[in-house]
Amino acid sequence: MEEITDGVNAINLGAESHKKNRIQVSNTKKPLFFYVNLAKRYMQQNDEVELSALGMAIATVVTVAEILKNNGFAVEKKITTSTVDIKDDSRGRPVQKAKIEIVLGKTENFDELMAADAEEREIGDEEQG
């Protein structure tokens, strides 16, 4: 797992990695809905979000994208797959890792859905309080 994190960190050094709307997903660090909610916030601010992952985290990215699409928040704009060379210290040679990037855009009723979500949370908070 550490080599994946190291690889993601190495990729971050590229010039285009300073995109404000990119989420690099790890399959160990955060729960699935952390990424779903983060992607919604990014889409609120930027109209689109790019989800990116390496190796085993690819399944998490695809799941996050499908949740957002199936619930009407996002439409798929672009999917890119590639392989990247990751330096593996334990083996002393580069290892190829699969990489995926999924760009999602807001749906027409995104703002309405977000407002409904916020309203549901407020009602839930009142019931608990």
Can you put this structure into words, describing what you see?
The chain has 129 residues and is of the alpha+beta class. The chain is built from 4 helices and 4 strands. A 4-stranded mixed sheet has the order 1-2-4-3. The longest helix has 19 residues. The radius of gyration is 17 Å and the shape is elongated. It starts with a helix and ends with a helix. The N terminus is likely disordered.
Short description:
This protein is α+β, with helices and mostly antiparallel strands. It has helices at 2-11, 32-46, 58-70, 110-128; strands spanning 22-25, 48-54, 74-88, 93-106.
**Any idea what the shape is?**
elongated
Series of secondary-structure elements, N-terminal to C-terminal? HEHEHEEH
The fraction of residues in strands falls at: 25-35%
Helix content: 40-55%
- Give the neighbour order of strands across the main sheet: 1-2-4-3
Number of helices: 4
The end-to-end distance, rounded to whole angstroms, is 41 Å
The number of E-state strands comes to 4
Low-confidence runs = 1-17
- What is the makeup of the main sheet? 4 strands, mixed
Compute the gyration radius: what is it?
Answer: 17 Å
Structural class: alpha+beta
Query: Average pLDDT value?
Result: 84
